[in-house]
Amino acid sequence: MEIIGALLISTIAGLSTILGSAVIFFKFQDKNINKFITTSLAFSLAIMIGISITDLIPSSTLNLLKAYGVGEGIILSFISFIIGIILVIILEKMMKKSEKTNDLYKLGILNMLALILHNFPEGIATFMSSYQDIELGLKLSLAIALHNIPEGISIAVPIYYATKSKKNALFKTFLSGIAEPIGALLAYIFLSKYITDAFISIILVFVGGIMITLAIEVIFPKASKYHLNKYLYVGLLIGVILILFNYWFF
After folding, report:
1. What tens digit of pLDDT does each residue of 181-194 get?
2. Over the chain, what is the mean pLDDT?
């Protein structure tokens, strides 16, 4: 029963990503579409950077320091972060070679890949904590669900406005969200005896490097290209407020 409960909690947390994609069903006049895209992208980059610097990197680095000591812990954290940066640069260069692909679509795909990598270890963490302590698992899953919703926006909005396909946007968002319960299931089947806090921490610092680089190098240029600074600042402000809310209360 504990296993089923833990898996269910991980599934709910992961698939909350799909709630974010609901914004593509809102009707906007043509003159307001660029404003909405700018606000959404700015909101997404604030969420990605905020999650990384307030949650993923500091907590994971602290776990590595406890597990390996100051010197080795810092080195492992730094290397994981740099590998994340390098991966985004490589993926961006690969996608730039596809000249026929819309820039917004490329951005949505990059966001999806980054968040799949993010959600996979989150699923493991949610499952393991829920399996050991159901109350702790519920608190963790609520915090994860809150930031999965805006992550869903970061995937669905660029893909929908690039392809005009709601099915495509929803499916890509679903792929990102389903990575969380898949991570939980694989943890139970194959890795439950071997997963450690240090292992998950290395992955999450790596994901932090991916998300920060993606936000600065890819999302920000796309958000600012419409030259709608007021909406850029509004999106950033909303994202920062949500991150602070999540940080203070969860």
Report:
1. 887 787 777 766 76
2. 82
**Which tokens hold the place of 106?**
């490329």
- For residue 46, give the nearest of 233, 240, 241 by alpha carbon: 240
Q: For residues 104 and 162, give the distance between their C-alpha atoms in angstroms, rounded to a whole number.
A: 6
**Residues 6+ positions from 100 with CB-CB distance below 8 Å:** none
pTM: 0.73
Return d(Cα 164, Cα 2) in angstroms, integer: 42
Residue 148 burial by CB count (10 A; 0-12/13-18/19+): exposed, middle or buried? buried
Asked if the structure places residue 24 within a domain, the reply is no
Alpha-carbon span 155 to 175, nearest angstrom: 10
Contacts made by residues 75-79, CB under 8 angstroms, sequence distance 24+: 76/202, 76/205, 77/201, 77/202, 77/205
The answer to the question of residue 25 being in a domain is: no
Number of domains the chain contains: 1
Distance CA 110, CA 67 (A): 32
Residue 181 within a domain: yes
Mean pLDDT of 32-40: 84
* CA gap 65, 78 in Å, rounded: 12
Query: Is pLDDT of 78 > 90?
Result: yes
The torsion region of residue 241 among left (phi > 0), alpha (psi -120 to 50) and beta comes to alpha
**Domain limits at 204?**
2-18+32-249
